[in-house]
Amino acid sequence: MKSLKFHIILWTINYLFHCVGHFTGSPTKIYIVSLLIILYNVLVKTIVFYITLYCIIPLYLEKKQISKFILLMIFNIGGVAFVSVLMNNFLPVAEGDKSVDLTFIENYVANLIDILGVFPFVFVFWYVNRIVTQERIKIQIEQENHYLEQSIIETQLYNLKNQINPDFLFRKLNYFYHESLPYSPNLSKGISLLTDMMHYAIDDDDDNLKVSLQKEIKHIQNFVEINQLRFNGRLQVEFDIVGVEKRHEIMPLILITFVENALKYGELFDKNNPLKIRLKVEDNNLFFTTFNLTRRGPKEDSEGIGIDNTQKRLSLGYVDNYSLDIKHEPEFYEVALYIKLE
């Protein structure tokens, strides 16, 4: 519909331009006959324009059939000009119109030259339209690829979640929690933390593929705390949070990956050099960093979804609205993540 309006406006302007040129360039007064003759001449050009644009160019020029293209162009121009001259004999004569004094050949040549003036506009319009169409197709393909990759990841996550019966799992964890209460506060606390973490990891409430940032932070805190239980509270971790509000949302299990890697590679028992986790939200911009010294001895095995997977999820979920810089040096391990939150 927008394209139709554009073409109507284009040819209306063309018609008005011809009217102004005709009546300002000659002493002819403005008569209805003159306006109709000008309209007829514009319609002739319109016919040539659209036959060339939508039939001859797509069928022959775009398919590299140059000889057929040239022959059809000659037939198109010559034939329309010939019919136009014949039709002029049946049209009324406007006052001051000197075309009646021309011979058939002179009239034919005049019409031919007039029609030829259409072709620069045809090819410019075709070329611009071709570029716009190619760009539109490119964008559509990129969007389809994006949705396809997103669907694959969603399917993978869905399949992973369905490998576990959540009700069965949480009933058992709840049973173990109550059974362990009289014997070991640390064990019962660990089971409670693990239950919360599992709830978060397989929760299906995030219909828009986003969760509350506060939930993601709580998940990180639970993860750090359950590791503290493993090492009797000896882990040196600083976790600073600034500017987080209830309305802030993020893709789930994004930040936890980097904390896992910090614990995997980090020297975590040095009071003077603790693992530093910083999370700040300012004007819907999230800044998340981790920094720790690199452990010299054996490393912890990570049970997370991995850095590569997280980077793919970031590129799909946030496209150009994020940046990630990871430095894994012999002396330290550092992550700097920026996300533009919606």
Automatic annotation (TrEMBL):
The chain crosses the membrane at residues 7-24, 30-57, 69-88, 108-128. GO terms for cellular component: membrane. The keyword Kinase applies. Residues 156-235 form the Signal transduction histidine kinase internal region domain. GO terms for molecular function: phosphorelay sensor kinase activity. InterPro entries: Bact_2-comp_sensor_kinase, HATPase_C_sf, Sig_transdc_His_kin_internal. It comes from the Bacteria. Keywords: Kinase, Membrane, Transferase, Transmembrane, Transmembrane helix. Pfam families: His_kinase (PF06580). PANTHER family: SENSOR HISTIDINE KINASE YPDA (PTHR34220:SF7). This is Histidine kinase. It comes from Arcicella aurantiaca.
